Amino acid sequence: MNRALKGVLWTLGAYAGLQLAARIIRRRWPEAMPASLAWLRARPIGMQLADVPAIMHALELERGQHVLEMGAGLAPLTGAIAEAIHADGRIVAIDAEPEMLRRLAEQVGDLSNLTTQAADPRRLPCPDGGFDRVLMGSGLGTIPQPDRVIHEAFRVLKPHGRLVVAEDALDLDFLPERSVVDMALRAGFVLCTRQGGAWRYVLVFERPAAPNFLHAPHEEHRIETYG
User: Fold this and answer.
1) 214-222 long-range contacts, CB within 8 A, separation 24+
2) What 8-state DSSP symbol labels residue 199?
3) pTM listed for this prediction
4) pLDDT tens for residues 66-76?
5) Residues 190, 217: Cα–Cα separation, whole Å
6) Residue 211 and residue 191: Cα distance in Å, rounded?
7) Which residues make Cβ contacts (< 8 Å) with residue 47, sequence separation at least 6?
8) CA 177 to CA 190: how far, in whole Å?
9) What's the CA angle centered on 77, arms 62 and 177, to 5 degrees?
């Protein structure tokens, strides 16, 4: 085995070891990811960009809507949302780490309809029923008591508003689909559609006009699966 190949294998092994250690630590002590360690959860840019069309399809955005993005997110996605809702819409990006929001603002440039705010997603500084859409992109598992985050999403959504949750097993803080669905149903959401598979999925929930607590997922939900 030549030296170059050994170097590549050593690098991959070291990275895998760091990933495993980081996952174990974060399962035991889940907190918001410091901006300085964001590289640990980064995926190749091509894979990140592949998420954008699926998430945009799930959001079903319209001009003038108000969108809450929980987590600094991916700049191309934030930019696509801002463009879809036009200047008379509004996107609010919330993250517990101010540095992550600063980086997002640098990447997307000057968007007149984007507001960033550092806040605890378990206690959102937002009025009841103020948003048409809430997006959680691979950040739910970073937060202790993620069920409280889901309840906050329910509170800030308008009736018939849409919650979109995107998760990827390559993320350090990946949450299984079943866990997310259970939390959302307990909060009062109805599961509408799902895309993807067990290790990479996008879930779409609706906030009904009247809370639908503990509604069993097999009873009246319309579940569509995309490849």
Assistant:
1) 214/185, 214/186, 215/185, 215/190, 216/185, 217/181, 217/185, 217/191, 220/190, 221/190, 221/191, 221/192, 222/192, 222/193
2) S
3) 0.77
4) 999 998 777 88
5) 8
6) 13
7) 170
8) 14
9) 90
Start-to-end CA distance of the chain, whole Å, equals 39
For the chain, what is the mean pLDDT?
80
Maximum mean pLDDT: which of 50-64, 80-94, 138-152: 80-94
Angle at 202 between CA 74 and CA 190, to 5 degrees: 125
CB 70 within 8 A of CB 163: no
How many C-beta neighbours within 10 Å does residue 158 have?
16
Structure tokens at 31: 């907190």
Paired with 226 in beta bridges are 195
